[in-house]
Amino acid sequence: MVESDTSKLPKEELANLKNYADGLLKTVREPLLVLTVNQNVVAYNTNFEKKFKISEKEEGVSVFNFNQKQLDTAEFREILEELQNGEKSISDRIVALQFSENTKKKFSVNASLLSLPATNPLILLSFKRLKSTGRLSRQEKVFNRIVDNILSNAPAAICILRGPEHTFEVANENYLKLIGNRNIIGKTVKEALPEVGNQGFIDLLDTVYSTGEPYIGNELAINLQDKKGEFKNSFLNFVYEPTRNKKGKIDGVFVHAIDVTEQVLARKKIEENEDRLKEVIDAVPAIIWITNDQGESTFLNKNWYSYTGQKVEAAKVFGWLETIHPEDYDGAKASFLEAQKERKPYSSTFRLQSAKGDYRWVIDKGSPRFDANGEYEGMIGTVIDVHDEKIKENLVREKEHRMQGIVKEATVATAIYTGIDMNIELANDAMLKLWGKDTSVIGKRLAQALPELDGQPFLELLRNVYRTGETYWGKEDKVDLLIDGEMQTGFYNFTYKPLRDKNGEIYGILNMAIDVTESVKSKMLLKESEFHFRQMADLMPGMVSKTDARGNDIYFNKNWLDFTGQASESLKKIGWVEFIHPDEKQTYLEAWENCLDTGCDLEMQLRLKNKEGKYIWHLSRCEAVKEDDGSIKMWIAANTEIDKIKEEEKRKEEFLKMVSHELKTPVTSIKGYVQLLLSLLKKQEEAEASNLPLKPSLERINHQVSRLTRLISEILDLSRIRENQLELKKEEFNLNELVAETIQDINYTNTQHKIDLESEVQAMVVADRDRIGQVIINLIINAIKYSPGSLNINVKIVKKASDKIKVIIKDYGIGISTENHKKIFKRFYRVGVKSEETYSGFGIGLYLANEIMERHNGEIEVKSKLGEGSEFSFILDAAQITS
Ligand code: ADP
Predict the structure, then answer these.
(1) What is the pLDDT averaged over residues 12-36?
(2) pLDDT tens sequence across 559-588
(3) Ligand 1 mean position, distance from CA 615 (Å)
(4) How far apart are CA 415 and CA 437, in angstroms?
(5) Does the pLDDT value for residue 9 go beyond 70?
(6) How close is the Cα of 672 to the center of ligand 1, in Å?
(7) Is the pLDDT of residue 806 over 90?
(8) Which residues are 488's β-sheet partners?
């Protein structure tokens, strides 16, 4: 701005101008001020003087210094500046001027540049007072209040701009709030809101003002300063509506603005999010699609187009279906449409044509979308290429199918369980038979299908295999199964083998089982029979042993161990053959070898060495135990002690020798006497001699015959006893008489020995008189026979108890050693067998005596010492004893 000074105008010039000015002023009524182009006051009229209360003439001074700088305002300076810049006239420019501290008055200023001939132009300014509110008419006031009311209650920001400069005439609270409650009334838009000057709004206002065409702005961005002077971006929906005066001339602009900043920002955010979402969707390595509630495709991400090579237009609505393999087309379409109709999740696997033209397997999955009110909006879904997996899966499925076929046909019971719950995925017929169940168990949990497994260890074992991945081998495990409504126990060999997927994760268990019940049961039976065998073998009196098929010792019974004094193991090590007497060993081994070759039985007598080193005779029998097919399973050998039998046999032999010897004597003697008697009889015939020794010869014959008779009857008794046919003919008799008679009989033939009888009591007994007599004879004859050096024999009858009578026969002969006291009562036993020549006999006398006494419930005993004589006695029940 140029601040001119009057001093710069020549005096004449100024006077000239003053003349003009004065002339102008005189004719005009409203306040008027005239300035030079240099903005110095040239003149003013009286009205001006009055209105502006000019007390003292002030001319030639700068208008801005004039009247206490009353006119130094921005608006006023602007007017002058415009004129200076070549503007010819300015009209109706509102200028507010300060009159006192509290009073500001508004004027509508019109200005024009007045060109003058031959001199500088003048600036002419007229001031028209604008009516302040305070001075409004009552009617106007009421009207204004109504307007105010409407405006303040309106939800929009409203203001009225007056005049071509767009001076704020009125603005409601919303508007004030919008512009940061700045003091705007009476100011032009440019003044009040300097920041909007270059945002195009003033141009818009100007256009509306000049054309009368309203302007509707939608979401226009505006940058406004708030009260604190900070800039803020807002978005406004607004209307600029021209207002007209009574004459229909445009006099202002009605502004109606709605702050839509929040909505716009929110929408922008959504749009931004949507954009970002679209970016994300496009970046996802999958195909994503969206359909509307009609099932029509509304969106497909970039991947779809690059995958299929389809054009955007071609894919729209149902166009995308065209890329499906013709064979899969109908199925896929139907499945999609059904899901769309039912508004439920959709999934379909089909072949999709790729951009290259080949078909690849994909999984197309979608879910229904519903808005906040639950209204169906369509679907959103993905398409994923699973071609490689599908091919692999097909291969696996084929393999699995083949495997399942094999398993199903397999005779080995097989089942597959999946998951930790052991769902029965597969169980072949053999397994179902083993379980005693039908196909209804397939698909169930094992625990549910076979509830009887509760309490048995198998479910836990399975879970353990599932957890650890370690295969379990069951060997002859006992399993209780409910078959045909009955709990049955079986034994099985089985495996629980973990099944792994391609990632090595365990997904199930393969169970294969073989029923070994029969074999276990027969093994158990075998064990039992083995036990019984051993028990029996131990109880048997003989020595029993067992060898395997090749003859290796595997078992010896207790008798064997007792006999050899060896423990089982050491006996096995040594081998029982080592205990065979060397004389029989070779023969035995040869026979045994032969048996092992041929499987024939073996029987042989041999001597075995006992723990004391003594050889004992045994009958050794060995027999092969054969399998059904005839092969040898094992050998069982029994060794029975036959030492005593052997001894007895020996005695028997000796007995026979003696019998023949003993019989020879009386028979030879009888034969001799008979021959003698015959020759004597012949001589008698010849010589008739009378004193032939017939009597003594006949007595001898008689003696020998009675000896023979006794011998024969004893042998007979012996066989009777063996056949248990010795019968007693019991009668009551006087024992003392029997003893006396017997001694008398013996004395008759034995004249050398002196037998005396002492009867302490008399006894009646009930017994077989002949047998008791036989006993007495035997005892007395033995006493005679075995006391060749001493001729006295005492027989005594004593009372043993009140009802028992005892007969004692005492000699003073060779006596018997204590060890033989028992043996002499045995059959054929004779002390010092080799001296049979010395004392004739069979060794049956005492045996018979003992047997007879036993049958009478009596007793027989011996008291004797070798070389000191013997005392034999017997005791009988007495029917009566008298002294
Ligand atoms: P034997 O016909 O041998 O006499 P016995 O049975 O009568 O048969 O007697 C058995 C054995 O008992 C005799 O061989 C003998 O050795 C012994 N014996 C029997 N009586 C006597 C005795 N009085 N004194 C010594 N030894 C006797």
Answers:
(1) 74
(2) 899 999 999 899 988 888 899 999 999 999
(3) 29
(4) 13
(5) no
(6) 29
(7) yes
(8) 481
| 763-789 pLDDT tens trace | 999 999 999 999 999 999 999 999 988
Query: Ligand 1 centroid vs 824 CA: distance in angstroms?
Result: 7
CA-closest candidate to residue 298, choices 357, 369, 349: 369
Give me the phi and psi of 725, to 5 degrees please. -115, 15
CA distance 180 to 294: 50
Angle at 768 between CA 763 and CA 773, to 5 degrees: 75
Q: Is the CB of 845 under 6 A from ligand 1?
A: yes
Structure tokens at 13: 């010039």
Q: Is pLDDT of 133 > 60?
A: no
Specify the DSSP class assigned to residue 225: E
Max CA pair span of the chain: 255
Q: Is the distance from the beta carbon of residue 811 to the nearest atom of ligand 1 less than 6 Å?
A: yes
Residue 56 CB neighbours (<10 A): 5
Verify whether ligand 1 is closer than 6 Å to residue 781 (CB atom): no
Beta-carbon contacts of residue 580 (< 8 Å; ≥ 6 apart): 588, 606, 607, 608, 609
Task: Specify the pTM.
Answer: 0.38
What distance in angstroms lies between residue 852's CA and the mean position of ligand 1's atoms?
17
pLDDT at 7 over 70: no
Average pLDDT over residues 781-805: 93
Considering only CA atoms, which of 735, 748, 782, 757 is closest in space to residue 878? 735
**Residue nearest atom 16 in ligand 1 by C-alpha distance:** 831
Give me ligand 1 centre to Cα 599, in Å: 51
pLDDT category at 698 given cuts 50, 70, 90 is: confident
Residue that is written with structure tokens 């836990």 in the block = 460
Cα of first residue to Cα of last residue in the chain, in angstroms, is 197
Joined tokens for residue 31:
């306040």
Residue 808 token pair = 């004692």
Indicate which residue's Cα is closest to atom 12 of ligand 1.
824
Q: CA-to-CA distance for 543 and 545, rounded, in angstroms? A: 7
CB 653 within 8 A of CB 665: no
Is the Cβ–Cβ distance between 90 and 81 less than 8 Å? Answer: no
From CA 214, how far away is CA 510, in angstroms rounded?
A: 86
- Local structure of residue 502 (DSSP, 8 states): T
Q: Is the CB of 860 under 6 A from ligand 1?
A: no
Residue 525 has a CB neighbour count (10 Å cut-off) of: 10
pLDDT for 221 equals 85
Handedness of CA 405, 407, 411, 417 (dihedral sign): negative
Residue to mutate (ligand 1; options 846, 852, 872; most atoms within 8 A of CB): 846
Atom of ligand 1 nearest to the CA of 787: 24
Contacts of 820-826 with C-beta under 8 Å, sequence gap 24+, read: 821/862, 821/864, 824/862, 825/849, 825/850, 825/860
- Does 783 sit in the ligand 1 pocket, CB within 6 Å? yes
How far is residue 881's CA from residue 802's CA, in Å, rounded to a whole number?
8
Nearest-10 Cα torsion for 815, 817, 820, 825: 20
* Nearest atom within ligand 1 for CA of residue 869: 24
| Average confidence score pLDDT of the chain | 85
Sheet containing 167-171: give its strands across. 167-171, 157-162, 250-259, 231-244, 215-225
The count of residues in the chain is 883
In angstroms, the Cα distances linking 32 to 43, 81, 120, 486, 646 are 8, 18, 19, 132, 184
Identify which of 384, 186, 423 has the alpha carbon closest to the alpha carbon of residue 303.
384
The alpha carbon of 863 and the centre of ligand 1 are apart by a number of angstroms equal to: 13
